[in-house]
Amino acid sequence: MKVMTFSHYKEVTEEILKDSYAIVIDLLRATSTMIWAISNGANVIIPVENILEAKLFKKLNESVLLGGERGGLKIEGFDLDNSPLSYKKEVVFGKAIVMTTTNGTRALKKASFAKRIFLGSFINAKKTAEYILKEALKDDMQKIAIVCAGTEKKFTLEDILCAGYFADIFKTCLEKIEVDDLSLASYELYKKFENDPHEILKYSYHYNHLKKLGFEADLEFCLKKDFVDCVCEYKNLVVEKV
Amino acid sequence: MKVMTFSHYKEVTEEILKDSYAIVIDLLRATSTMIWAISNGANVIIPVENILEAKLFKKLNESVLLGGERGGLKIEGFDLDNSPLSYKKEVVFGKAIVMTTTNGTRALKKASFAKRIFLGSFINAKKTAEYILKEALKDDMQKIAIVCAGTEKKFTLEDILCAGYFADIFKTCLEKIEVDDLSLASYELYKKFENDPHEILKYSYHYNHLKKLGFEADLEFCLKKDFVDCVCEYKNLVVEKV
C-alpha cells in the first residue's frame, strides 16, 4: 500500500488520484463539522462552492439547512456557521444540510477524481482508516491519497498533524506500507505532538485565527480523537454515512 | 521578521517574493554543489534551464565548464556531474561553470522575483543566515522566504530539514520572529532529527534515489553542517561569493 499526502487540494490532479482512495482533511473545521453533523443524524450534506448555489438549494426546498463560513464566520442569511458545536442532534437530525466553506468544500470537489472519497478528522480517524483498509483490500486498491484542504493557498499544520495520525494508524495496521516524503514528515510531526497537539498548534496560523474569533471550544473539539463511530463518504456530490 | 517556507519553487510568485529576501535550497545536490564549487575558487556559476543553453555557452567560450545532471546522472558531453565531490579546487579554481539541474537551477530562476537571492545548504547555513540577517537589518527587510526546490513536483524532506535549520538559526539570532506553518513544521522536524538527519531521510524518496545511484558520499557531505565559510548570492543571472 502506498500512502501519499498533499498539503493543499490544489496540488492534486486526475492523474494522481484516478487509481486511489482519497481522504480529505479540513480539520478546522469543515470535515470535522460535517462528520459531527452526520454522526448527530443529519441525513446528507451537500457541499457547494459558493453562497449563491447554497441559497438556490434553499429556494428549491425550504427544509434544508444552510451552513458554512467565510473568513471563519457565519454567512448572512444562513442557518448555521462552521462550528461543529452548532450541529447538535436537535438541530440536524433527519435534515439535509447544504454547506459552503472556504477550503473544505472545494477540497472535496477537487478530490472527486479519486475512486472513493472519505472525510477525515481526528474525531473519527481510526474508524475511517480501518474501514478504508478493509475496503481497499476488497477492491485491490493500492494507493491512498491524503488530501489536506490547506488554508488560503498554504500548507496548514493542523491538517498535516491529522494526516500524520492517519499514517500512524496505517503503519500500525499494515505490515508493508510505502509513504511519500510528506506522509513521512506528517507522521513524525504527529508523533512528536501526539499527546498535546495544542503545544505546536498554538504557534500556527489558522488555529490562532479561530482562537481570536472566539472558537476555542471548537479547537478542543476538533483535536479530540476517535469519539465518533461513523465513517463519512463523499459520493455523487453528497456526503453520507457509509 | 517574518519567515515563510515553500515546499516547492512552483509555489512562489512575484507577489509573494517582491518584498523579500529568498533562500533557495536544493540540498541534494544543486545548491550544496554550487556553494562548494564557489568555496573551492570557482569564479562564477551560471545556472541555466536546459542542456542546449549550457552547450551554447561552451561554444561561445571553450574555457567554461559544463556541470549538472538529468535523473541524477552526468549529462552527455558535460565536464562535470552534480556531485559536490567532483568540484575539487584543482578542477574549478578560477573557472566559470555553467550548470543545469532538474530542480535547483529552475528554483533559482523562479526565486528571482525576490529582492536578493541566496543559496542555502547545511554546509554553509549559519554563515548564510547570519549574513542575511545583517543585510536585512541594513536594508529594513522584514520578510525572508525559504524556497525549497522540491523533487519533481513534490515536497522533499531533505530540503525541509535544511529549511528547519535556517528557522532554528533565525530563532536563535532574533528576539522576535514570526513563522508560517511550514517554517514551524520544518523547525520541529529539524529539531527532532538534528543529531542524525539520516535517521529520517533513510525512508525518504530522493535520498534513496541517490543512494541507489551510488552517491552515498554525497549524502554524507551534504548533511554536514557549517564547514564552509562563504555566502553565495544569485544576482544578475549568476551565482557568486558575496
UniProtKB/TrEMBL annotation, chains A, B:
Stored InterPro entries: ComB-like (IPR005238), ComB-like_sf (IPR036702)
Reaction it catalyzes: (2R)-O-phospho-3-sulfolactate + H2O = (2R)-3-sulfolactate + phosphate
UniProt-listed Pfam families: 2-ph_phosp
Enzyme type, top EC level: hydrolase
Superkingdom of source: Bacteria
Assigned protein family: Belongs to the ComB family.
The protein's name in its UniProt record: Probable 2-phosphosulfolactate phosphatase
